[in-house]
Amino acid sequence: MxxxxxxxxxxxxxxxxxxxxxxxxxxxxxxxxxGGKDSILMVYLAQKAFYPGKIPFPLLHIDTGHNFDETIAxxxxxxxxxxxxxxxxxxQEAIDKGMVVExxxxxxxxxxxxxxxxxxALEKGKYDAALGGARRxxxxxxxxxRFFSHRDEFGQWDPKNQRPELWNLFNAKKQYGExxxxxxxxxxxxxxxxxxxxxxxxxxxSLYYAHKRDVFERDGVLLADCEYIQKKPGEVxxxxxxRCRTIGDMTCTGVWPSNATTTExxxxxxxxxxxxxxxxxxxxxxSETAMEDxxxxxxx
Amino acid sequence: MxxxxxxxxxxxxxxxxxxxxxxxxxxxxxxxxxIFQDQMEQxxxxxxxxxxxxVNLALLTDGLKSEREQGITIDVAYRYFATPKRxxxxxxxxxxxxxxxxxVTGASTANVALVLVDARNGVVEQTxxxxxxxxxxxxxxxxxxxxxxxxxxxxxxVYEEIKEDFExxxxxxxxxxxxxxxxxxxxxxxxxHRSDAMDWYDGSTLMYYLENVHIASDYNFIDPRxxxxxxxxxNTDEHHDYRGYAxxxxxxxxxxxxxxxxxxxxxxxxxxxxDSFDGELEEAFPPMSxxxxxxxxxxxxxxxxxxxxxxxxxxTQDMDVMISWFNERPLTPNxxxxxxxxxxxxxxxxxxxxxxxxxxxxxxxxxxxxxxxxDIGRVTLRITKPLFVDAYRKNRITGSVILVDEGTNETVxxxxxx
Lengths: 300, 418
Prior knowledge:
The complex is a heterodimer.
Chain A: H1 7-25, E1 29-32, H2 37-50, E2 59-63, H3 69-82, E3 86-90, H4 91-96, H5 114-125, E4 129-131, E5 148-151, E6 179-182, H6 190-199, E7 211-218, E8 221-224, E9 238-244, E10 254-257, H7 263-272, H8 290-297
Helix pairs in contact in A: 1-2, 6-7
Chain B: E1 7-15, H1 21-31, H2 37-49, H3 58-61, H4 65-70, E2 77-82, E3 86-94, H5 99-107, E4 112-118, H6 125-136, E5 141-147, H7 156-170, E6 177-182, H8 206-212, E7 225-227, E8 230-232, E9 244-248, E10 254-255, E11 259-263, E12 268-275, E13 283-284, E14 289-294, E15 305-308, E16 314-325, E17 336-341, E18 344-357, E19 364-365, E20 376-389, E21 400-404, E22 411-417
């Protein structure tokens, strides 16, 4: 017998190790669930890590109120299936309470406002670790992220002063009021995620597969036509075969022309594509360091 | 592509901008089609804005605002690419500031170290430093890339001379597997494609080497070690008496029916079942994450270790380690720190600093023994409770520790058990 795991099993084992480390080293962790494939993968890995026990922490969904319907339906079904506890943090509530002011204009998005709702939910739940599905291959600032990422009492990230991480020793020590963000799938690429989901036959929201949808183009990105986005004059709605590569808020999630209707089709597409998946995210296009700037303030 | 048979290989690169490290990484990413169009457009635009005449591939790895401003890499950056045979994780570490700290971090999990040598300059201080760190961290495979061969007219003599020089020096090191490849990262010679300009070289290209180097035995498969990470107790009707010990195999092969001993209690039992979400397993080996169930009801918790009766680690409160120091505040002789080892945690005291190692020459400095940031030295530790350890040379997982400052909670040092 050859004692060698394939790359997907090795990544799986690493992520399970991190998830168990979180359950062991923190008192009150929470898993940030966006409804996207990465957080679906996280929930799946957490099921594996604690089998046959239940996932020993709740799922936290920051609801911008601008979701794709499919996301919410999938979320509720998953919660039912796994028996996990779901907590919802609401951006609408943060707006109603006057904690944040809604962006105005045609490019208005609630993406940035999520940070406030997230930090509020983390504080309210007294969570000392928030598990996220961010990956290092997604974006250049995320390439520098640790598995265990320390946040100060304001939830801020200090990228220049991160703790070195060696071997599989993870230092989760913190002062009262501080917390950690933990990223168990740091080393996975988009292709790894799809290959793994295919290998494990994990069911995903229909949005990820090619479907007919009304869309329009803005700054080179296709956006879904919906009540939450004001169209500029001259923006024309077309009905096209598209799919999502990432799923976020409807106002900032680009869709891609695609005919990939199965997971194997998607693997093929991802393996040959020439654009990164966040190339469709208008929130990253605001400036060269848009992600780093948001992360420092406490974004996912 | 048959992605289910592809392996994971981690390698570190070390070197400064002048060695052509970024160009080499850029070349590997580019030739394996791992640079995306929008990434390329973004760095083209940034290069132009910065007034640079050529596309600066270093911008691919330098992600932070301050790194871009200063044109330096501050932190370890992780890059990913895949070929049909393997998925690669590159830990790209800066060659200049905080070199040791970052290189040690990147090296701790690497299968292969790439050391870059500028063919015009030969083996220099930085080359030696990188090789010494690779040796201290026991990276199983070392590749010396003699770069910029195009600038020395692809001459065999230059390559041979550098190789000989390096071998002479490497004889003093603890490296088992050293490989030399003459390349030009800029022109692409022997990186992914074979060079037409160096007929005299009949070895493999760098990419061929990385795809084929034997990494399957980089883990210890001989000495069974299972640090208990988490106890799974579902407490449901269906799994009422289930008590599973979750963890990642740190060494050896564990089989159902094996007679095992639990440390520190010394109780013995048998493996009743190796469990996983995907069903029961006959055996488990590193680096698998599994759940172990025992025949007998023994009180076991996180930090305990399951081993074989006839193959036990050392159980000790005193140990010597080579320590790599990371913090601006130097190591305090007689200072107390939190020590983390596998899934154990304790406190320790620095009893003695034996020497400071000059990482450019391997000289043991017995006079100036202050261990400052980026220094490496040998120290003796006294620990508040017994740890179950192996020498780092034997097992990188059960042979490593980190020290944490009790006031600031920062990770201040990493130690390799001697």
